[in-house]
């Protein structure tokens, strides 16, 4: 049986995944991340979830005049992790998960707040 998830459900999946990434990477250096396959695989999986959820959020929800997040690149990362896994570079994954994710979190929380307040 298929379940139809709405935009707010997908947004909650993104927020949850970001919070898990933050917890996994708390106090972890790039060197530790690159050599710790459990952490790197967990973060890759969570980034894949973020990309998949992003890919299924309606454009009218995701894109507005205040948006500066490159959502298409996030979906592209999901495709890389899924289909071109052999090209994955853990240093790049660490960079995305520690630097780029901060702006993504701010933006997705802004969108979530807007949806919740505007019905």
TrEMBL record:
Q: Is Phosphoprotein found in the keyword set? A: yes
UniProt keywords (A-Z) are: Hydrolase, Nuclease, Nucleotide-binding, Phosphoprotein, Toxin-antitoxin system
Q: Which Pfam families does this chain map to? A: HepT-like
Q: Is Zinc included in the keywords of this UniProt record?
A: no
Give GO cellular component annotations, separated by semicolons: toxin-antitoxin complex
Which PANTHER family would you find in this protein's record? RNASE MJ1380-RELATED (PTHR34139:SF1), UPF0331 PROTEIN MJ0127 (PTHR34139)
Question: Record's family?
Answer: Belongs to the HepT RNase toxin family.
- The entry's protein name is DUF86 domain-containing protein
Q: What organism is this sequence from? A: Chryseobacterium taklimakanense
Highest classification ranks of the organism: Bacteria, Pseudomonadati, Bacteroidota, Flavobacteriia, Flavobacteriales
């Amino acid at each position: 049986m298929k379940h139809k998830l709405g935009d707010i459900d997908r947004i909650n999946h993104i927020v949850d995944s970001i919070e898990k990434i933050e917890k996994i990477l708390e106090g972890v250096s790039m060197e530790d991340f690159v050599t710790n396959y459990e952490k790197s695989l967990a973060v890759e999986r969570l980034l894949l979830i973020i990309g998949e959820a992003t890919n299924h959020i309606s454009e009218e929800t995701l894109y507005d005049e205040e948006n500066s997040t490159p959502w298409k690149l996030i979906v592209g990362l999901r495709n890389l992790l899924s289909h071109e896994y052999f090209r994955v570079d853990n240093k790049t994954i660490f960079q995305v998960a520690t630097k780029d994710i901060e702006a993504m979190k701010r933006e997705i929380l802004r969108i979530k707040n807007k949806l919740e307040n505007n019905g």
